[in-house]
Amino acid sequence: MGGGIWVHEILSKFTNGPHWKEYSAREIRTCFNLLFPDFQVRRLQYVSIPYFPANTFEKKLWRMAERHIRILRTNIFAEIGLPTKEHGITMVPSW
After folding, report:
1. 56 lies in which domain range?
2. What is the C-alpha to C-alpha distance for residues 6 and 17, in angstroms, rounded to an integer?
3. Measured distance CA(4)–CA(15) in Å, rounded
4. For FRET with 73, which of 3, 18, 45, 47 sits at 20 to 30 Å CA-CA?
5. What pTM value is reported for the model?
6. Number of structural domains found in the chain
7. How many CA atoms lie within 13 A of 78 on its CB side?
8. Is residue 93 part of a domain?
């Protein structure tokens, strides 16, 4: 579900939320649908990007679990397309 405040709250009141928020796949899709309908979210995929080596048994076990259970993966790969530009930004933040 993402971490922090909801996408609708970011757009309805002034906040620094977009800079620190952890977005879920659903929230990425919602954000693009609300603000930029010209963009098409073509693919969202949970991925695991190992930043540090798995040098303990626990870390190796966690990485193995991530490979098999996608929701445990900590990053999202988003493929966004812009086939046509007709609408521009449709929802302007109230602030």
Report:
1. 7-81
2. 9
3. 11
4. 18
5. 0.63
6. 1
7. 17
8. no
